[in-house]
Specification:
Helix content: 55-70%
Order of helices and strands: HHHEEHHHHEE
Strand content: under 5%
Mean pLDDT: 76
Radius of gyration: 27 Å
Number of strands: 4
Distance between the termini: 43 Å
Length: 267
């Protein structure tokens, strides 16, 4: 996690760490649940990027147990509220508890998946961090803009503005998850294109990375064209690909040729 985000993390940890005990003193069980679940999301989201990729420890097991406990508490309180004469529990409706009773088991399932796989890395690691931090922010924004509307002027109470502000973290979550998945797809396509020469009759030897930003797209384009030639039934693709000469860049950017002949490289 970058340093500029540490103050926000500390602020949210402080908020949830204070909200849960205060809610206990006030007898507000839905806010006790919200504070504890937010604290769980923040700590596990932070630990995801702090933990070395592909590794787990006792913390992940403890987080899984905590998520199970929160799930059981949320479902139990939701059933109590649903079966009460008023359909509420201490003023909170049953759906308020069932929201946490749905997300907490999902989080527990993801924790179990991480434990069984002995850790995660790459895109899955980033996605785990993103959804936990953004959903924790949504719990905080929803509690303020929807649950504490009395602190706002009368002109904005009950208006769509507060709903937009409350749901903004979910929109951010959706955007970043799609962005991470999109970038991962692009990287896989680029890797597949770069490995296309392995299917040619005389695959090229490993070469030094001395391509400029202009030359790389040209190389990838020619790789794809060679693969298309093979699919079309052309028996042999060219043994070498000549890349454009980079002028005025010194000795490091002379005319380059990627060849498949053993003993030759970039010339």
């Amino acid at each position: 996690m970058q340093r500029q985000f540490v103050p926000q993390l500390v602020a949210m940890l402080t908020m949830s760490g204070i909200a849960a005990p205060v809610a206990v003193l006030m007898g507000d069980r839905v806010n006790v649940l919200a504070g504890l679940f937010t604290l769980y999301l923040l700590v596990t989201g932070w630990a995801t990027v702090r933990r070395k990729a592909g590794g787990i420890g006792r913390f992940e097991v403890g987080a899984f147990v905590a998520a199970l406990g929160l799930s059981a508490a949320a479902l139990t309180l939701g059933l109590l509220a649903m079966n009460s004469p008023t359909g509420t529990l201490e003023g909170a409706p049953a759906p308020a508890f069932f929201i946490f009773g749905t997300i907490a088991p999902l989080a527990a399932a993801f924790d179990l998946k991480v434990i069984l796989r002995r850790g995660i890395s790459g895109t899955q690691r980033i996605a785990r961090h993103l959804w936990r931090m953004c959903f924790a922010l949504f719990v905080a924004s929803g509690s303020l803009f929807l649950g504490q509307q009395q602190v706002f002027p009368d002109s904005v109470r009950g208006t769509p503005i507060l709903f937009v502000l409350a749901l903004a973290p979910l929109a951010m979550l959706l955007f970043w998850l799609l962005w991470v998945r999109f970038m991962d797809t692009l990287k896989r396509d680029a890797t597949a294109s770069a490995g296309a020469y392995g299917a040619l009759p005389n695959p090229p030897i490993c070469v030094r990375s001395r391509f400029t930003e202009i030359e790389r797209p040209c190389l990838i384009s020619r790789i794809r064209r060679s693969r298309a030639m093979r699919v079309a039934g052309i028996a042999h693709a060219p043994d070498s690909l000549s890349l454009p000469v980079s002028e005025g860049r010194g000795d490091d950017h002379r005319g380059l040729t990627w060849t498949s002949r053993v003993g030759h490289g970039l010339e």
